[in-house]
Amino acid sequence: MVKIIFLGVAGGRYATSKQLLETGGFVIKTNERTIAVDPGAGALVNLAKNKIDIEEITDIVITHNHVDHCSDVNVLINGMTHGGRIKKGTLIANEELFDHENSCLMKQHVDWFDRIVKLEKGKQVRISNDFGLEPIETKHSISGFGIKFFFGNLTIAYSSDTEFSKNIVGQYKGSGVLILNVMRPRDLRVAGHLCSDDVETIINEVRPKLTLMTHFGIKMIEANPLYEARRIQRNTRSNVVAAHDGLILDPESYSADGPQSMLSEFLASVKDKPIE
Question: For residue 170, what is the DSSP state?
Fold first, then answer.
């Protein structure tokens, strides 16, 4: 069982500040794990709204050190570890997050995890027997990564914040589900981010079973992400969903029968042992 729960679908400094839609990233739940991905502003509140117990969190993934991706990380760590009294969980991030003079992450909280995984380009990581991941290149205003998640027969590629690049799109191949941060509608490109027209190109190249659009900026919200998703779906003849606050989705119902990378194939190539 894999479920994706969107805690909030707005992104960028203006949409986050105005809270026209909620923010806070998303959660991936399996039978064994609850993974909080990019817990920006509102993640704590929206976990409660979606009836996800903060103590259930087993992993926190932060793709880069921008406040709309990590501002709530400390309150999540505090809650899941009972203020550091119970050492647990895995923190997955790039090296930059551990530069504590410039990071959202409080230094003391690093020691409250069972395991720290620092993402490196080209390095695949096995987190447990049912969960592996691989960093994906991004082109953004700050260093960071997208993530390719492996769960059994399901592979999910998450773009994080990035401009379009043929090289980056090539790394999405083999994914049954794409989660794309789409800041602007149509061809209204802005440095470091995707627009709707980029999504069309990506889908035509990767041919996933399902594409989920999230992390909408002000211009995208004004254009209505639902209309953009419908237009992309017509043009690509592919399943495209504009995520909304609180959306809960079972991606396996779309993607399990499609040709994609599998956890078994991934684990065969990864030497890193799972956490006990």
Answer: H
Instruction: Label residue 81 exposed, middle or buried (CB < 10 Å: 0-12, 13-18, 19+).
Output: buried
pLDDT at 265 over 80: no
Within-domain flag for 134: yes
Distance CA 2, CA 85 (A): 29
Q: What tens digit of pLDDT does each residue of 39-73 get?
A: 999 999 999 999 999 999 999 999 999 889 999 99
Q: What is d(CA 112, CA 260) in angstroms, rounded to the nearest whole number?
A: 36
Residue at 275 is within a domain: no
What region, left, alpha or beta, does residue 224 occupy, with left being phi > 0 and alpha being psi -120 to 50 degrees? left
Do residues 79 and 109 touch, judged by C-beta distance below 8 A? no
Domain that holds residue 65: 2-268
What pTM was computed for the model? 0.91
**Token code pair at residue 145:** 């990564």
Per residue in 203-250, pLDDT (tens digit) is 999 999 999 999 999 999 999 999 999 999 999 999 999 999 999 999
Is a pLDDT exceeding 80 seen at residue 147?
yes
85 alpha carbon, distance to own chain's centre = 28
- Residue 124 belongs to a domain with what CATH number? 3.60.15.10
Residues in the chain: 276
